[in-house]
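Final report, closing paragraph on structural work. Over the funding period we assembled a curated collection of sequence-structure pairs, and we close with a single example.
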Amino acid sequence: MLLVESLLLSTPPASGPISLLYAWGVGDSGQIDDGLSSQRPDIVAGDSSWIAVSGNNFGEHTLAIRSDGALFAWGFNGNGQLGNSQSGAAVYEFSPIQIGTSSWIAVAAGLAHSMAIRTDGGLFTWGSNGSSRLGDGGTTARSSPVQVGTSSWIAISAGASHSAAIRSGDKALFMWGSNNTGQLGVGTPLTTRSVPTQVGTSSWTAVACGRYHNHGITTIGKLFSWGNGGNGRLGDGTAVTKSVPAAVGASSWIAVAAGAASGAAIRLDGALFTWGYNANGTLGDGTATTRSSPVVVGSSSWIAVTCGRYNTGGITSDGRLFMWASGGFGALGNDSGVTVSSPVQVGSASNWSIMAYGSYNGFAITTDGTLYSWGKGNIGQTGRNTRRSSPVSMGGTESWIAVSGGHNHSLAIRSDYKLFAWGFNRYGQLGDGTVIAKSSPVQIGSSSWIACAAGGYHSVAIRSDGGLFTWGQATGGALGNSTTTPHISSPVQIGTSSWSIISAAKYSVHAIRVGGTLFAWGYNPNGNLGLGDLTMRSSPVAVGSSSWIAVSSGSYHSAGIKSDYKLFTWGFNTYGGLGTGNATNRSSPVAVGSSSWIAVAVGSYHTLAIQPDGKLFAWGRNDGVQVGDGTSTVRSSPVAIGSASWVAVSGGHYHSVGMQVGGGLYTWGNNASNGALGYTAPFKESPVQVGSNSWSIMSAAKWGVLASM
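Its predicted structure, as stored:
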């Protein structure tokens, strides 16, 4: 796809009004820089229906089961807890990813490990295996699910470094992992168990693991607690640690939850009770007093309860959702960061059925299967693709002179020529020496820069002395430095030449050297490098011997303008993106008619170009009405877009953005799923102005837009 070409700034920009930077569209990895916390419940994967979800009150990942039984995970993956065969401090997922192809019925997220029960009753675990919390007899971490024994199971719960499961049939309770505070409930000695070990001889219907303590309900409705008893978290009227289950009163109970240092349970008559640590109003009894015995919460009848790190939430019998305690990071889902000590309703809906809390974030599922999330989502815990359907200022009063949007990260050059980056950073594409995502701009080194281009998972920039630098993922040779290293997290210079223009695609780069020679490198499956073949290049290779003045590098096809202002295209052409009147792929540049052109931009499968008189033309794939000619018809030759005069253009995946003479910013294409057009509409098949402001620079990212006034 197009990631906008960046031109050499041969002279410093004239002083003038501050050029504030705005962004809109998808921001799942922080690339629109408006933070990654939501104060209100937002839909997760809106086209799916869900039946189960699990966060953890001290962990930073989430698991959920879709209505078809498919298992999904998102968030932090430092120990392989997402189960997708990857792990590492840099690895997180901001949107749900499917784990395998099996069908599942239950999930439980621990501090750094995960558990799930398959539809055949098989129990699987993965992630960190410190203290043998996976129950497979060892301590080796697993980044994909591994089966625990051969028994059939019906219920699971995961603690900080221990696990629990209830076996089907006899409903016996088993636990394993760390036992330093008696949390396994198997008595002394308080030693780690590496395989499931039975807890007593009772039959159980529910179990809930806290950080170092647990609660469980037997088949006759009796509530028991064991483990660390500090702050009264066992609810048995003491603060004494227990290494075997201790009864909590004599009532009958139907549901139970364990927080980091608290507990909650619903009695048979629907009354909700809480106990334990209460400094943040966690217990919901209107006080901040710690309780060692259950205290009733209000007078409502409840059907579900869940505990977070410092929060508690529940669903009443009439389907209303309530939360209370710490409001930090939007954890209460009510547009407030204020801590409350009594239940506060979230919204006015009465169709909630399932709820789960994470560390500082929550999840709830409505009766129609829609999954919502809220709260802290800095590393993907909320599983939301944060979107904005209207321009959002990135704050501050900085003035910007260049910007480039990539697949899920962004680059910009400030008026003092300093380079900044933000967004997804798994492969070091931000260039700040880390692989940690950033939701706000971070400065890259101290050099002065004159051009930047964000690719799929890599970045390119030209320093003020003309030096060309790359960093990020090296897949397909995208870095151009012949490296075999998977990724580089800081800028590395490519050769000693002086460069003037760059453009980056998903796995490739085009660059024009001072003097006009065009070079290309990277992935080349469709001839998109323009070198006459389909061979990957890991270092710059000249594209013919002509002199060029503009280039736009696409993932599937590319385009450039020679010094005589003739337009050429090459690469994938099934949708007519080359503008040659046919669908024939080309691995070498082919002329697009005989007109003169001054600007060109490549989208995923469409192309836009401006002639010297300011007329805009477009062609290629048009099922998202991204061509902008008022139709959804594929165009294999250039077609005029209105009669206005244009000065700049950029193409995204299924949308386009352009700037007219006078600074008016216009967008068009598919807007249904990402807000990329900057206004509310499912799609626009002709250009529509975004606001009434005058803009100076802009770039279409894959699913969004960045622009500066």
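The two ends are 25 Å apart (CA to CA). The chain has no helices and 57 strands. We thank the funder for supporting this effort.
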